[in-house]
Structure formats: C-alpha cells, structure tokens
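Job type: complex structure
Entries:
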Amino acid sequence: MILFWILGVVLVASAMWVVTAKKPIYSVVGLLAHFAALAIFYFSLSAEFLAVIQIIVYSGAILILFLFVIALLSSGTAAFATGPNKMPRAAIPAALVVLIALVFLVYGVSRTAFTAHAITVSATSAAGAVGTANVFGSVDDFGKALFTTNLLPFEITAFILMVAVIGVVLLAGDATPYVATKRRARAVERDMRDAILRAGEE
Amino acid sequence: MDASLPVAITNYIGLSAVIFFIGVGGVLLRRNPLIMLMSIELMWNAANLLFLSFAKMWLNNAGHIFAFLVITVAAAEAAIGLAIVVIVFRTARNVDVDEVALMKG
C-alpha cells in the first residue's frame, strides 16, 4: 500500500516533468523515470512479463528513438552546456550509480537464480496445486493466454508492426537511393551548415 | 477493498486519470511535436496501468493481452510519428506545430 503512494507520487511528478520541461531532452529523462516507476508498478500488479516488456520496449526502444530524433533535429545546437567531447560533470556520478546498480544486480542474480523457481512454486501453493505454473501474470500464464485464446490479436500485432515498418521506410526513407547520391550528399551538407549557422545566430 | 489489490480500485482509476490528463495537457499546451508525442506516450501508459489494475482486480489476464496490444500500437505510433517529425523538419526546417500549417484549409 505504501508502494502505491510512493510510485503514484513518482509517476505524477515525472509526468509533470515531461510536460513542463523546456527542452525535449529533459522530457526524455522524465519519461525514463516515469517508465521505470511504471515497470515497478506493473511488478506490484503481478504483471511480470509486461513489466519487463515495458523496460525493453519503452525505455529501450522508444526512448532511444526519441533521443535519435532529438539528436538529429538539434544538430548544431548543444543539448548540454558543455561543448563536444567534453563530458557534462553529472555524467561521472551517474555512471558510478549505474555501475553500483549493475554490481548489485549481478550479485543478486547470482544468489537467487537457482532458488527463484522454488519461491514461485511455493507462492502458488496458496491458490493452486504446487508445481503447476498457473501463477496469475507469470510468463507461463501470459504466454499460454497469448498463444492459445488470443492468437488472432497476436497475429494482428505482428501485422501492425509490419505496417509500421513499411510506413516508416516509405515516409522517412530515401526515395532515390542511387540517383544523384553525390548531389544529395552535398545538399545534406549544405542543410546542416545552414542549420548550424542559424543556431549560431539565435 | 478488494482482496487482490493493496488499495481500492478507485485509487488506481484516479492515478491513471491524473496521468492521462497530464498527457492531454501536454498535447494541448505544448507546441513542440516531440514533447507532444511523449505526452501521447504518457496517455498510452495511463491506459495500460488501468488495464493491468483491472486484470489484477478480476484475476483475469485478458487485461495483460490488451496491454500488450497497446504497447505494440504505441511503438508503431511513436515510430511513424517521429518519422513524420523528421520529414516535416526536413521540408519546413521548423519544429513548431503552429508554424507548420501546410495542410491548413
């Protein structure tokens, strides 16, 4: 119960941060915190698989996509105060925190990996028979539901992703891949130079 | 209070609604298309949160399937939305949605 309120405050605060941040790059940081808190929230709702998917798909794929686009659009304008090849000072403690977290993670996994299954099974025994992996929200449970009862939605998911891939290639891809490559390269160079000059004027 | 949830379901609905409307506010108030897209992601996630809360409440994993579908659609939407932002920036050299009004009638 206390977890709900802590996570609720974190979720609302990070959402506000996303909406009110001045630069999109700060919004991405807020969104990262939001997604991490949401993944913990999903764990507390015993949606283990979706919590992991949340981290992988949202924090791993979608946010990186946002970062790429921000980097592409703000080429020439510095995202941070320091210039190129100079690390922002906050990077060093941040990297240390990540290192410590990773050490703890490896330590924790190496200690619990062999007993985790036993814990899951003993947790089941209250509701179902021991040894049957019908824990609500477990990967087994979710996978069975996804691939038997809900096979058609799963196929539709695959179709949606294919449509998205084709759409993105058609929208943002190069329409003339071989013709006039040099001219295009020169044009891109000129555009970038203009963008940098304009950023310098502002 | 429901047995399977630590707090009453109304709290989950309230939290989800608050996050959703923060996202709505972001889309309506901000003019940077990237921040608007991120606000849309907030709204997707608020919906997902509610799906998973109700799934836990009824101990029915149909909500998980729905959330999975929502995550997929959100990923597709983000990819296509960002592609559109990139082409708009390529042609208009501008990332303010108010000034990009080519399709205005």
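Summary: The helical segments of chain A are 2-20, 24-44, 48-73, 91-112, 116-124, 139-149, 151-172, 181-201. Residues 124-132 of chain A have pLDDT under 50 and may be disordered.
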